[in-house]
Amino acid sequence: MSSKFKQFSLVFSGVCIGVLISLNFAARADREVPPSSLPVQELRSLAAVFNSIKQNYVEPVEDKKLLDNAISGMVAGLDPHSNFLDADSFKDLQDSTKGEFGGLGIEVGMEDGFVKVVSPIEDTPAFRAGIKSGDLIVKIDDTPVKGLALNDAVKRMRGKPQTKVVLTVARKGENRPFDVSLTREIIKVQSVRSKLVEPGYGYLRLTQFQEQSTIDLVKHLDRLYKSGPLKGLVLDLRNDPGGLLSGAVGVSAAFLPSKSMVVYTDGRVEDSRHKYFASPEDYARGSEDVLKALPAGVKNVPIVVLVNGGSASASEIVAGALQDYKRATIMGTQTFGKGSVQTIIPLSETTAVKLTTARYYTPQGRSIQAKGITPDVIVEDSLQGSAPVFLREADLERHLINDKDKEVAPAAPKQPAKRRNDDDPIPPPIEFGSKDDYQFAQALNFLKGKPLELPPVAASAPAAAASAPK
Question: Which family does it belong to (predicted)?
């Protein structure tokens, strides 16, 4: 038995080493990589566990499942945003960047073994049902979430359109978990929306950064300017969980001088160090420069950018760049704080790893990681100052530290949460850009030079930042 196990261990260690070498080659084929010693003892331990499961587990387990689980655990243990993408997950990721996929419309992560909502996507089943950032999903239909891998939980929430799923949700301030019944849909995310609020004042909302976001942005700006020049523009990035970096660079480039640096990344290897500029090479990706069609005046129109705790990643790149160049006034509440770059490294035609490879920095060298963007003018979501409880990057287990500033974003003062009775309906979300949107109303007041209706917590915002645009 001992000799058989030793033989198996050597063979399995050889397989592991071969896998590691092939992954290294796939990710580094275009550059020299210094050799590194492999942890042979740890690989033997892995082989021992593999052999123990094969011999002693109560039911037979396929080798592929064990190896996929080992890979998944190895990657997921790094940070909240790195993970192994099996065939289904890889396809879902590709579909989501194109703006169409099936499911409920929730950006999620893992926290203490449960699925935690980062942000509901606007105009999706989850958003309409009142799911909020920070909600903890403890059960999907009759299946407890505790112990499920994130990919498995996501698969259970997705399904055929027009089928139902019941999420059991735990929410801070509630006396007990409650059920939310949702009907799955084909999620078609409209990346950009706009409207002319009144003569001279436009509203532009980005819900997610996709392949077509820069093109759509130009179309909407052109539509807004058809009625004449704008005196002010509200750029709404609230609850925008991010998306493609090229989309963030393109949106920033629409409002910044040509060839301005928008963002730069820095990591351990040369490929992860890059500067991105307001140039077609960085946002057009080989296509036609759509920003040539921008209406006159876009580069100079006064802008207020609205952000909150659901504004993450690409949203923070845009807000940070416009803030660094003093091109816009950032208004709202502290953003999510996701300042890391994930690279999709294909392992085969159907699988890949999403790996954190760098941190990104604003043009002035600020790291947003685990801190976020601090608005120039703090405006809570209502006159009473009660803001929703947002899950932030600094709340996630194993999050990367901010290498420029070890301090995390200060928590906003919270009002005591009102407990909901089981029979109480879930309040519908406020429609962004509507007459009931308090933050939007303050952004318009700011652009018009009118005083802001600020609650006591917002009155402490820097006086210089709160001055109206000229």
Answer: Belongs to the peptidase S41A family.
